[in-house]
Amino acid sequence: MLIAPSILSANFNNLKDDIEMINQSDADLFHLDVMDGMFVPNISFGFPVIRAISKLAEKPLDVHLMIVDPDRYLDRFVEAGANLISVHFEACIHLHRTIQFLKSLNVKSGVALNPHTPVHLLEDILKDLDFVLIMSVNPGYGGQKFIDHSLNKIEKLREMILEQGLPTLIEVDGGVDLNNAASLKSAGADILVAGNTVFGSVNPLNTIALLKRQADQA
Ligand code: DX5
Ligand code: ZN
Fold first, then answer.
1. What is the pTM of this model?
2. What's the rounded mean pLDDT across residues 134-158?
3. Integer Cα distance of 134 and 170 in angstroms
């Protein structure tokens, strides 16, 4: 199981320490949430912050774009240091074109699905994706409660991936904790994003290791 701590819940007064903690931890990716105040009712951070993180990060940057019309900015996110980029299904009118553009930029390309968007809508694009991000809360904020129905979506998506014989990874984002990590793994998740669970804990380094262990014991 890959673990991707979400920087949204980090301490922005001392971001460097949190980045170094992740470098030293068992985490596999940095999860960076970009919000534009349009697609979601919140605004987070953009290029300067991502660029600064990329200078210190020793693991790939997984940039989750919760923005309308992401095509306008994809090359700039790559320049800023993104290694994986996910765009929202609900934000892309010409998703196939967006994904082809992402591929041309040599980053791992993913599509994120809001809780109400069924996985079967990905049937005709799945083979072009490196990963699918299942939102297990409504996007916009950290620290929300996991929506249980997400487990069914992960199972269905896992079946679709197996049926098509693809290497596509499943990332789960929102409300991931030490109690649901094992069931997420059993349902078919490959990457767990965790914000509040990691940064709200007394010992984030240890929590990252525990999350990985819980999932891998499933
Ligand atoms: C929510 C973001 C998540 C968020 C997860 O819109 O996409 O990545 O940071 O936070 P937790 O793990 O606290 O639910
Ligand atoms: Zn996210």
1. 0.98
2. 98
3. 7
